[in-house]
Amino acid sequence: MVFSSLSFLLYFLPPVILIHLFLPKRLQNPFLFFASLFFYTWGDARFVPLFFGLLVADWGCGLLLEKAEKPGVRRCLLALGVLANMGSLFLFKYARFFFDILGWDAPASFASALPLGISFFTFQATGYLADVYRKQTKPEKNLFSFGTFLFMFPQLIAGPIVRYSDLSKALHEKRRPEAQALEAGMALFIGGLAAKVLLANPLGAFAGEMRKLMEADTLCAWLYMLCYSLQIYFDFMGYSVMAVGMGRMLGFSFPRNFNHPYAASSVTDFWRRWHITLSGWFRDYVYIPLGGNRRCAGRTVLNMLIVWSLTGFWHGASWEFILWGLWYFLMLVADKYLLEQLKAPGIVRRLVMYVSVGVGWMMFSANGAENILPMLKSLVVFRREGHALFWLREMAPLLAVSALCCVPAAVNGGKRLVKRYAWLRFAGMLALLLISLAALTKSSYNPFLYFRF
Amino acid sequence: MKKSPLFAAAMALLLLLLAGQWLLPRREFSEMENRVLAQPPEISLSSLTGGRWGDRFESFAADQIPLRDAFVSLYMTAEAGMGRRMTDGVLRGKDGRMFSRTDGYSERNVRRNAAALTSLSQQTGTPAYLLAVPSAALIYPDAVPDGAPLADESALLDAAAEETNLLPLVDSLCGIRGCGDLYYHTDHHWNMGGAQAGYQIICQALGLDALPVDALAEPVPFYGSFYARCPLPWQQADDFSYAIVPGIRLIADGEEKDGLVDEAQLQKRDRYAALLYGNHGLMELVNDSLPDGTLFVIKDSFANALLPLLARHYHRIVAIDPRYYTGNVVKEVKTCGGEMILCVNGLSSLASNRELSLLDGL
Predict the structure, then answer these.
(1) Beta carbons of A260 and A273 less than 8 angstroms apart
(2) Core-most of A18, A281, A453, B217, by most CB within 10 Å?
(3) Shared-domain flag, residues A159 and A277
(4) Chain A residues touching residue B20 (CB < 8 angstroms)
């Protein structure tokens, strides 16, 4: 089930939020756990054994880690837990890729669909085990509470990747969100839904059209880059904001996953604002344990290489994602050791950021590493085809609105306005909800890019 | 809830829609969109584990949402408000005219289908003619949005002319386009004006004396196939009318019909489907007032407005629609003893698929 579907909006969200609101404390976590299980298995119950297997393995490992005292045993337990999570991820997401590299025929079972959200919940579970191992957090003793942490539906399939310490307090107290939290949560949810349905979906449809024309027309290639860049942002940001909004309505406080990334001042800044919880995960569980930037410059660069190769690979089991990660490694090293050291003007660093991100999304969406160069070539080799201006005119208002929504000053100005006039916020949000429902009723184009990750 | 009005209102709205979905009567068909609406999917173990049940449920939830037509209209209004001139492949042009996007047309398909007609002519020893009806965009280019994704239909017709005997319809339509509408604004078909122009061209080619149309049915409002895909609330209806041709019997797929027009369908939105009771694999039009003369027709729905006019010249018209016809076309032509083969097809179907070339026997 996806948030931007009528099945979810009519059949799942209202009953779950309202029932949870009035349940006694002892029933809230079990209810949320089973609701999340229902959400996950809706219409596709193939991965229930994986769901329960990982739940028990991570929960058990956490408890044993607390009891074990010998460092060797603790290391073994951590390794076992990490192996369960990363092994599942490898098996379902990467095994086929390696079979292909080795030229072996992959077993038919590897061709089956990727379990939804596996990249997110395996990382969340691994982070939890690392925190328990480092004694930064106490393990969760109650299976339902742990299951609620790991598989809670708002953040189950697309993040944000939440740390146990962020949720442990709310998991153990009676959650009765105040009126203000319900109001703010619903506003966030509707805002995220509108970003996904009213911006990302039509941008995606335009991106699809431009993709077909980009080799014949240079303007179409640039429009493709623009549409896809905005689509992936509103798609993923919308989903994350919906998750945060639902968390608020359930009495949780999820971390922010995006902070106006296209207003970043450099590539480094971009990655502080884009998919913040994933960057934080790699920082806390890979980069810093490797030594971070506390050693020599060469070691820092090596650590960055490892982290960005893994970041790329996390996004998908194909070469274009690895190249995408390496591209960002190069651009981040250039930003850190060249532009920053040379004290390059802000405009230069910002320009480099836009080029890096734009080229990055071309690589990211290439659908095969062999398509990257032709796609990039289509940006710089001038060609003209008949329909480009028609498409530009078709999408111009949508592009303008989307671009405006990327500008912090515009978004914050809008927020100030609705704060001043409560009726405007009420009417505006209800209108957005109605138009989003209308779009879901009529439109057949409703993909979610981050599902494949 | 007083302190959280948005939360209360949004929840109430979603719950009302949910309740309405189960309490209100289910709709089988959307007249506005001209399509069957999804019903609740059945539950079985295999459907749940196959991953498709969720998709089917989503279709049901969307199709049976209360006030669906209002939601669809709201979405179309929002799209138009964002300056969109093309929705779901339908272009909105000047004067309320709608056009189909045609950039997916294939010259290869046109050539294959036209060559198949020539092949049929050679195999049966019967002369064949093609009346390929272009889209309204070719006849009314000034009404089309600038730079719209359209195929070069003139080039496609030239390609067809290289493969078979193409009747010069475009020149005729362009010559009379200022005298009145030839196509519906909200539908991809031509109207009676266009069909009559087609009839004149056929008569010239087949050496017939064109007869005047004695009576036209009283016009009724009509929202066509373009409107079904792009139902804007302010779109003006077309006037739908048809030629009243007495004395012709229609036998469609072996069943004799009551007249040439399906009166029940005339009460529904897709009035064009009333003509000749819609499309059939094999149909016959019999004119008992004439002793002889047989014409073999290969057709799609464009011919439905035209064939009653042509039926006044032949004792029998045998017509097949390649989309539904499953027999051997060569045998069919030989059996019916047609003097001529006439193919009346929209250029859209000739260019979008190759059904003519796939007919059994060719």
Answers:
(1) yes
(2) A281
(3) no
(4) none
